[in-house]
Design goal:
12 helices
Length: 251
């Protein structure tokens, strides 16, 4: 059954995290990050940080269920959206920790967020949610330093990717959380008001585009970036379960 409340979402995410620890699955990297963000959103709702806190919980639940549905579909051998398929497939390969985090962020924000935003408004005026949508950026910004500190524990040379490799790889230059969230809002405005096959086609077109971006993130071109990724990977934690346990939110 889909989660109905933010508490149920948190419980579901904790189950995914524990399963990934038990099975040494790199998919748990994003699950751990997402759990941390969801706990912070819950705190924000409790503190009345949003214009409509009840609506924010609806958005959070709809948003999370898209990730959970994709995860359970993948586990069952079914096909999730192309964007999530790229992320889950990549989790079966080594890569570096930051790549796996970005692949989850790519699928969830660039595809799922716009769909969930439109669904939250139930055909109402989308602009009525724009302020709360933007406030999530503030929440994410407040977590950046914390998340970076946790990632540095498991990937001490991760800064090399941010400092040097992005200057040589177009996909990393284009990709950022702020850019993704801006794109998610534009996608929501494009999707808003569509129904039936037009609605489905709009989502499929977006999914295909985001999957292409995911492929570029999973398998970036260029010898320089490849050399940096390999070098960074040498110094990362070797066991996914240890990475997940470190990234996991500890209240």
């Amino acid at each position: 059954m889909p989660a109905q409340t933010i508490d149920e979402v948190i419980t579901e995410l904790e189950a995914v995290i524990q399963e990934c620890i038990d099975t040494n699955n790199r998919a748990g990297y994003f699950a751990a990050l997402y759990h941390r963000v969801t706990c912070r959103i819950k705190q924000g709702i409790a503190a009345n940080e949003f214009e409509d806190n009840a609506r924010m919980e609806v958005l959070d639940v709809l948003f999370a269920n898209r990730y959970l549905d994709a995860w359970y579909a993948w586990k069952a051998g079914n096909k999730p959206t192309a964007s999530w398929a790229i992320a889950f497939e990549a989790a079966q390969t080594k890569g570096v920790i930051m790549q796996h985090l970005l692949l989850g962020i790519n699928a969830h924000i660039n595809l799922d967020l716009g769909i969930s935003t439109v669904a939250t408004m139930h055909g109402g005026a989308l602009d009525g949610m724009h302020n709360d949508f933007n406030k999530i950026n503030t929440v994410l910004a407040s977590l950046i330093d914390v998340v970076k500190a946790e990632v540095f524990k498991v990937s001490p040379l991760m800064f090399l990717i941010d400092s040097y490799a992005k200057n040589y790889d177009e996909m990393l230059v284009q990709f950022s959380i702020d850019t993704a969230r801006d794109g998610a809002w534009l996608f929501a405005t494009e999707l808003d008001g569509k129904t039936g096959s037009t609605y489905d086609n709009c989502i499929n077109t977006r999914d295909n585009a985001i999957a292409q971006l995911g492929t570029a993130l999973a398998k970036p071109k260029g010898w320089f970036f490849g050399a940096i990724v390999k070098f960074v990977g040498w110094f990362e934690y070797k066991q996914p379960k240890d990475v997940i346990a470190t990234l996991r939110y500890k209240p």
